[in-house]
Amino acid sequence: MGLRQAVWTTEDQSALADVLCARRTINAAAASELALMDRYVRGRTACPSPWVTGVTEKDLYSSAICELAAALSSTFAAVHNELQMWRRLRPLVRNSFVDGSLDRERVKTIHDHLLHARPETVVAIEAEILKAAAEMAPGTLGREIDRLLIEADADWDRAVRKRAARTEKRIRLRRRARGLSSLTTVMTDGEADEQLSRIEAEVTHLHPEDPRSDDQRRGDAQTALMRGETLLCECATCVASRDADADPEAPAHGEPVPEIPAPSDAGSDAHDGTGTETAGFAPSGSEFPLRQPPDTGPPNTAPPDAVRPETPAPLDTATRSRPGGGTLIERWRAMVENNPHGVHVLHPDGHGGMTQPPPGALTYAPSRALAARVRAEHPYCLHPGCNVPSERCDLDHIVEFDHRHPERGGWTIESNIGPRCRLHHNLKTRKLWRTELLPEGVLHIVDPLGNHYFTAPTL
Fold first, then answer.
1. Which pLDDT score, from 0 to 100, does residue 326 have?
2. How far apart are CA 64 and CA 84, in angstroms?
3. pTM, whole model, 2 decimals?
4. Distance between CA atoms of residues 61 and 65, nearest Å
């Protein structure tokens, strides 16, 4: 059977051409953005003389990347990696990116798979890669680049794979919404296939009636393997069977539950001797409430508090009034920008409102207990947008600690120290970025250009 001839109208062709034209424009704009970022960083790095200011060229580069990351609501790593990718692009790939023929994702795929390849090898296969990039999705393109590299330089490919398996393994944690997290693991192809086989073996044992989706089953299988357990089926039959095994005295599945006889109105069994009615309520700490007795007696005239548990007080949902209105960050941005020379800091001296230093406040290094409390309160670096976990950060004094006269400087107390990764700690130490703690736990940070950034307190 031959293919049915498609009927295309002039409007269809024109609409598709418009889509492709828009995509080329977007691709070219992305290349232009990277070029402008590169120009900005080069200009900021070349500003002052390192020998005059005491700030090194590396410090200036790091600060410029942080300035871009804060302005773009991104991270240092993301901006740094994109800039380095732009600087390392081969001329043919860069030209295709600039004219819109290649999008950012394909450019990144080409860059990552050619990283550390021998220059002569790249020159030999670059034209073939560009042809493949015009027709292949990024994942398929990456596999094609690997195939071309193996054909062009098999010895190098074996050596680089062996080195990568030893040096590039890592785990990254990303907090997501609704109490979930992503744990991304980089491992060898063989290790990934082995783990997937174990997950599929666990999923295979489940009954078809299991109500979970395939993704949910695999996720639960991964958790079970992590704990050294077996993935349990969640179908109704298996759940009822496990419940029966856990409580041998419980009625069999499908058997009616016997009712508790109603207490006599006149008998003394209805009370425990303290005046509190016990029939119909589970004792304190009971996991399952008892069945309510049938209402066969006269209407109960006892006070409500004597016959039913106390109703919990409603949660305080009233909106707390704060000066300025709007979100927390909006309010403080307005207050700081309307009065940039005013004193907004909660405790300018870094003493937390105390007149006498508590134990350990005059010691530079915090105690283990204090460090644990601070890291629990702030799970990430305090710098805007930085996602380095606090356990990998330095504990930095917001108001600088005075080593010669500790009683005068910022004290080592919970309100004056916070986690800051080594990069952002160094930028603050070099006086390139300024930090102050505002009321309500808001951290106010100013970059070398005078731009204001705010970090809301951790909930």
1. 57
2. 14
3. 0.67
4. 6
